[in-house]
Amino acid sequence: MKLVSTTLTGSNADILGDALRSVVDWVDACLVIDTGVTDRSLEIAREIAGDKLVVRTFRWINDFSAARNFALDAAHEIQGDWALTLDTDERMELRGEDVRAEIEGATEGVLMVLDAAGTYAKERFFRLPVKVRFSGPTHESFPSYKVGCRTLSRMRFTELPKSPEGYRKKFERDAEVLRRHTKANPKDPRWFYYLGDALQNLKRYEEAIKAYKACAALRGWNEESAWACYRAAECMITLGRYTDAVDSCAAGLTLHAGIAELPWLAAFASWKAGRAEQAVYWARLALPMGLFMGEGHKVKRIGFRHVSALHEGPFDVLRFALRAIGDPAGAAEAERLYQEALKARSAGGGQG
């Protein structure tokens, strides 16, 4: 069973080495795709990977999907059975995961890995040859549901933070690219979601809300559609539109009733609007689908999580809202449960 890591790189000599170090000991080959290297990146890759290094060249055409599909094909060409995707700014942490046992026993075509905070998962391991392809010029999408997928329980990845200027440039690039892509693909909700994400991060909240609403209205993948309502509500709260935020959360629940973050955010928006009694009702609705005192671990979700909302978040609202409506005993109990839930999350309990 040959496992090949695949890494796209331009001139990334300062960060490529640590990315490869995080996998070189447990993969069979490190495939580096040169998309226009002009520095010592390939020399550093050779120093780290040694005889495991394989280099292929791909002319960069401003399309991440094309580059990733090229990498997966190249991994198959060097007799890989599975490919691992690893970006230069990412680091893999096994955390006791037996990757060999997982891929050898897998019936799925894709295995996913959570980020270190447990907030979202990415497709990481791909059975070769792949039967479906990446699509989209940025925030590229792989239809893993067509080949089956599951998330590994222990392994995690981390991503190096960018500078504020680096983030700004990324979001501006994404917004420009996705403006064009949504016009060309007006029926695909995914691109409206990530257009909203880029605009929200650029603090262009009204434009972001419009993009998120377009995503939700297309009613694609229910988890993404519901989360678009959540993200739109975040923007509305920032703009002081608290009632609209509650409405957006309620709309999201009609798309996916298992997203506990939606009633939690509605509770917070209700509290900000001065509607303490409604805040209590919404917060209590969040508890059954959460990960603390709830059954959130039974909700089938791939990504999109606000981890604190799944643990202590509802109690954070309740400890203030209950006091505001004249229930000090209830507020005290909410405070106690808030502290317990916070400890449970900090200890890693209930990642779900």
TrEMBL record:
InterPro entries: Glyco_trans_2-like, Nucleotide-diphossugar_trans, TPR-like_helical_dom_sf, TPR_rpt. Residues 13-92 form the Glycosyltransferase 2-like domain. Belongs to the glycosyltransferase 2 family. WaaE/KdtX subfamily. This is Glycosyltransferase 2-like domain-containing protein. The lineage of its organism: Bacteria, Pseudomonadati, Myxococcota, Polyangia, Polyangiales.
